[in-house]
Amino acid sequence: MTGQSAIGTVDLDVDERRLAWVYLSRVVQGPCAPLSALIASVGVCEAARAVREHELPAALRGPTAARREMDSAARDLEAVQRIGGRVITPDDDEWPGWRMLGLDQLDTDRDREAAVPLVLWARGPLSLRTASERAVAVVGSRCSSGYGMQVASEIACDLAGRGWTIVSGAAFGIDAAAHRAALAVGGPTVAVLACGVDRPYPAQHDRLLAAIADSGLVVSEYPPGVAAQKHQFLARNRLIATLGDGVLVVEAGLRSGARNTVKWARRLGRPAMAVPGPVGSASSVGCHRMIREGEALLVTRAEDVIEEAGPLRLPVGEGAPTDPAHHLRGAEAEVYAALPAIGSRQPRDLAGQCGLDLATVRAVLPSLELADLVGCDSEGWFRTRRPG
């Protein structure tokens, strides 16, 4: 009897926490750095109580005022379950915690959309954590040309055929071409929406989104029923960049939203890549500018993308280069090079030495640690391997 009572108490605690996450997701509807900070400080259940009872710091009173009395958590869970969906919270094994580390290091005073999402709503059989372990975001122009559609389809098809997850936003043009290419070869694909997962957007892509939900994953940080609004697409772009190992742009106009996704990739320490187009093509002006100004690397095929976005590789075999960091690229190479051969450095010192912002350095160091290239102690970060 005592064992059953203990199990029942655990179940009640889990349910209470899930309802608290869902309630707060409805209240703020999108990223909210002050609320994330409150949850980190007092826990999600106490944060939900504080919001309900309006016992809040000044920074949270405005963002929570409109919907704090709207406790529809149970109904929201029922609504997403009716369409075969679920909510993924930071308490769940499916939560892509490693991916969210980069967002957690960003300066939310500089950009309020930089906060980690409270929860993610999802439809589809894939595990989000597993699907995002090896993924590339493919984005581009909604008004794409035949050239752009062909290139996006070919690269996405090759990547998906090699087991890479294609992440995109289900928009017209390049997004849709990338999703369809992945589906065509039976590869994994994730669509990130700027509205509830029960509202196909754009409406003309209801069949495409249904196909993605059948074999892949449709995700959003917005609760069921929330309609798409302009500012939500900018917040959505950070999730597209977060869930991929890199961002690939295939066609982008001068004011393309794809450049915003590239901005997020660079802030997160992810490689940004762009496909060049015909020199006179207005559809590729944005790609050409990003390449020229060093915002994105020029790529033309799946192999190029894998070389930039793939896992860190160490040389093996006779005749291989003796430098263990031979294959590092971009920010990883710069941070590693800034570390001394002997001794340690703090992230702030590394940022000053290699000219990168502190958030990028902090996001890169854990990936170098996973590759067994660096370690850390009370003195700072240090190299774990020496050239042979």
From TrEMBL:
* GO biological process terms on file: DNA-mediated transformation
Source domain of life is Bacteria
Q: Which InterPro entries match?
A: DprA, DrpA_SLOG
Enumerate the spans annotated as Smf/DprA SLOG domain.
87-309
Family per similarity comment: Belongs to the DprA/Smf family.
Q: What is the official name of this protein in its record?
A: DNA-protecting protein DprA
